[in-house]
Amino acid sequence: MRTLLGLSLLFLTAPLLAEPINLATNLDRAPWISARAAGLGQTLSGNANGLDAYYYNPALIGGFRSAKEQPFLTHLFMPYIGNNSESGSNKIITQQLGGEKLEDNAVSNLLAPAFEGERPYTAASLTPVAIFNRLMAGYTYNSRTAAYRNDDDPALPKIHIDQRTLSGPFIGFSAVAPKNDFYLGVSAAFLKSSTVQSDLDATAFATRDSRKLAFEADKETYEGMPINIGMHYRFSGMLKPNISAVVNDVGSTRFSPADKTEETLIQKEKVTLGLGISPMLKTWGTLNVMLEATDLTQHEIKTRDKFRASTEFTVGDRFGADAGLSFRLGYTSAGMSFGAGINLGILNAQIASFAEDIGADGHRVIERRSVLNLAINIADY
Q: Do residues 55 and 267 lie in contact, with contact meaning Cβ atoms separated by under 8 Å?
């Protein structure tokens, strides 16, 4: 029986792989794709806002303004589009959006280079969402396709193909103390995941019919309800120091299979602590600097992989993802990340490049991926 760990439900490791791969990376634990999070190395527990607040700190849903300052409707993203890919793999998602299925030649031809050691990877998400004061509600649809070479038997090389479609509604809310210094929030999603995980040799991969049979046999469906809680405290002072604590997958999320003969999947609880400063740069900008320690309850993760840092420089009178212009740097043990964003009111665009460690069992397999978000904010507060 395969054991899968991670919201992506794509973690399958063969013990004899030359480079065992873990596709359930940290960035994929969120139910949609965020270029801002990628550009900051996911170090944003103290400055998450907009859509990012749902996962990275629900306490910041609705932002830093008090209820008296906050318009009733601040965001109405219709839609919020995300794309995450390894260089050159965007054609896969393009074919799928055009109606091609995983077993069709147009898609399989783009996955075939995995036999030669390449690791095609692409994902796209669509997330309409509304934020009413300090309440967030929306729906997410996230599709991802990946492949890599399986050398379990060197005499008979195979490729491992993973496809996941994740969808469902989500909701979150936060509350703020009268002095506008302490924030507390919670969020939850009701997610359905349909996955295909197949290991195919050259013969099984050769024809559409053989691929279709394998994919149908390996298709599985799960349902789960991840819950996240967060808190944030802002101290007074010119530098505006702050401290944050976030727990994702509170109590560990259980994903129940549609086929009761399969195992229930467990997504482990994740605890993150953050320290930061967010000084105003007169009236025209903000500097956000964050340090975080994450995965604090998961002892199997190496200490070096638990620390990360970020810096974000924004221009304009709005904060974080809502700023008119943003520049970002992030650092994790996998490497540097960087990104930029622009907010023209109705139109919002964010881009990033980040390093991701997809190695399993202590192996380091570093890939650089690009991320893009495009959003139309009908509310335009």
A: no
